[in-house]
Amino acid sequence: MPIISLHIGEGGFGKVFKCQVNDSEEVVAVKILKNMNIQDIKDELDMLDVIGQLNADQVHVVKLYEKFQHCGFTCLVFEMLDIDLFQYCQNKGSLDVNAIRPIAMQLLETLQALKSLGITHGDFKYDNIMLVNREDLPYRVKLIDFGLAFYTNKAKFGRVRQIIGFRSPEVSLGLPYTEAIDMWALGCLLAFLYLGYSLFPESCEHLLFRSMDTYTSGSTWRLLSKFEYSVINRKKVFIDLLKKMLHLNGAERISPTEALQHPFITMSHLSHDQGSREGVARESLTDPPTSWPDPAPTSPLGKSLVSPYACNIYRPLTFLAPVVNHDF
């Protein structure tokens, strides 16, 4: 039996401890489940057995080494990972699109693998995405916690799933849903990584719907800086992918396979960037700034939300709310 050395997490499911395996230096994470509904425990164990058919490293899910009973409690022994994405962003701040890309690619491969098994994770959020080793393997991530996972064809419509800030419209409305709810949650996660705060409110479902309406309708205009224009190709493909992930209609939401072919993931758009930069450089010689914005606001994680060098170049923003638009 592993020797407990540190309590590292707790939730409605139970507790997680960092443990050392007897007579070795190997460190593992042991999840001790609460004595909850026996069927719930059985369902989670069955789901872990099915997911265990996958190559955990190739599809970026946590490895389950073994399970055992101790003093009437079910214990699950997992590989030891690093910190979750929420903790990472608290420490490091929001991420650039170039750092977000490998994370997005890995998690899309995870969703693709789960879909092939007919499984929906159902609890896709930043604290269920762990970094493997932030020092030696930067941006290598794995999905954890399959306690709320279910077979997609057995989804119970009307059952509340997902935390509010990551909850898809179809779940909130009690409509039929598919694995597309995980894609919605991934879109929310990627937006969080870039902005440094959640795209949608996490405390009130009414505010959630108001935000969805604001973010997906109407048109907002503002001044676009020279710097922003020079990097627009990198950001606009990221925004385009987010729009497809956050389509209000789950049936029309982009699939994992389609998303893996999106230019943001394949980087096919980068071949056009050089020409865009040259065009901006030429324009900047003949079109000096004519107006200046208010001092740049800052996100909770320290990221500037607007360039202080705005000039008279305009563009429409039809997706993100004005406070979010400042960063694009």
Give a short synopsis of this structure.
This protein is an alpha+beta fold and 328 residues long. It has 13 helices and eleven strands. Helix 4 (97-116) packs antiparallel against helix 6 and helix 6 runs antiparallel to helix 9.
Core attributes:
328 residues, alpha+beta, Phosphorylase Kinase, domain 1, Transferase(Phosphotransferase), domain 1, 2 domains, five-stranded antiparallel β-sheet, disordered C terminus
What's the total helix number?
A: 13
Gross geometry? globular
Helix and strand composition category: alpha+beta
List segments where confidence is low: pLDDT < 50 over at least 5 consecutive residues: 218-224, 274-328
What this model shows, in words?
The chain is an alpha+beta fold and 328 residues long. The chain has two domains: 3-79, Phosphorylase Kinase, domain 1 (2-Layer Sandwich); 94-216 and 229-269, Transferase(Phosphotransferase), domain 1 (Orthogonal Bundle). 38% of the residues lie in helices and 20% in strands. It has helices at residues 38-51, 56-59, 85-92, 97-116, 169-172, 180-195, 205-215, 226-230, 232-245, 256-260, 263-266, 273-286, 322-325; strands at 3-11, 14-20, 27-33, 64-70, 73-79, 119-120, 129-133, 137-143, 150-151, 220-225, 310-317. The strands form four sheets. It has a five-stranded antiparallel sheet with strand order 1-2-3-5-4, with no helix packed on it. A two-stranded antiparallel sheet has the order 6-9. A two-stranded antiparallel sheet has the order 7-8. The protein is globular, with a radius of gyration of 22 Å. One of its GO terms (cellular component) is PML body. Belongs to the protein kinase superfamily. ATP binds at residue 31. InterPro entries: Kinase-like_dom_sf, Prot_kinase_dom, Protein_kinase_ATP_BS, Ser/Thr_kinase_AS, Ser_Thr_dual-spec_kinase.
